[in-house]
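Hi support team,

I submitted a single chain yesterday and got back a structure, but I'm not sure I'm reading the token output correctly. Could someone confirm the output below corresponds to the sequence I sent? I've pasted both exactly as they appear in my results page.

Thanks,
R.
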Amino acid sequence: MNSLFVYSKSYQYVLSILLLLPLAGISQYTDVINSNRPGLSVSAYAVGKNVVQAELGVFYEQRDHSLLNTQSDIWASDISLRYGLLFERLEINFEGTFQDQDITYSNFNLLAKRRDFSRNRLGLKYLIYDPFKNPEANKPNLYSWRANNKFQFKNLIPAVSLYGGANFVIGDNPFYVGEPTLSYRGMIATQSRITPRFVLITNTAYDRISSDDPELSYLISLSHAFRNPKWSVFIEHQGIQSDRYADLLIRGGIAHLLKENLQLDFNMGASLKNTPSRIFIGLGGSYRMDFHKDSLIAIEDQDADQNGGAIDKDAMKKEKNKKKKGKGSGAEDIDLGPSKKQLKKLKKAEKKKESNEIDF
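Hi R., thanks for writing in. Yes, this is the structure output for that exact sequence:
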């Protein structure tokens, strides 16, 4: 079998484009939902302590194999259940895909059916490194909007998390004939940033460890938030290599933030080979139940102005105005970096603070 890592020029071209596109990242816990959908890549960050999140979808796939002369129609549903366990950096998650496949063997004029879980696994993910942990090192430049939005080499340093989990094959699963009930999975997930609008995620996984056909795979996913941050798009490349199955896939899609705890999405994709050729389309959504609470910091351990500084004389008026306008959709809480107008206010406040300091 040809190695997955021996590509034609067209494959190398696709990968080069994905690797050279701008990158971005997001914080650990966010005020709005942070979903792994609509792609298959897994973020380096956890959902946050005491956050319960469900990510569900349905999809249809047409799969034809030129050598075996088979055609398949596949309907499937997938689910990912995520929970922030014990502390901010740790997440436990279940991932399942239930698949119904009709296969036509053209050479023999036969029709077969397979129905079971093609994915059924439970795992833990832990963030081991976060380049944005220190807020002092990531303060916005008050003198230049462009400096905050252009390419910066420091943002190539990714957040890194480790994943460990197990796959379960229950009963006579037609997708994994002869495989053990339990096999293992390990993965490294990274997330990098260049501007507030772009996110690059990579996953490198070694799957079905302890089975007769272990699987090596990678995912490269790039997403971009529009000027209206309720909308975002993504493109993703996936490579899979094992003695049982090998493939190269590309997919893309769009996501819409309906409410701060609800996201809807659409995706489609295809394989880059014809053994088998695959075309698929899907839609889904993600919903979050947020029980997260910020940890309290003793006042003697707080930094200067950590509590927000002096109370503005119009603070109560502003709060009343916010209540009149309503809670909002949640998109206003997405951090795409300070605008030019916000930078001017920050710069003015900084100068005022410096003028009020007493020099001994």
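A quick pointer for reading it: The CA atoms of residues 14 and 20 lie 10 Å apart. Let us know if anything else looks off.

Best,
Support desk
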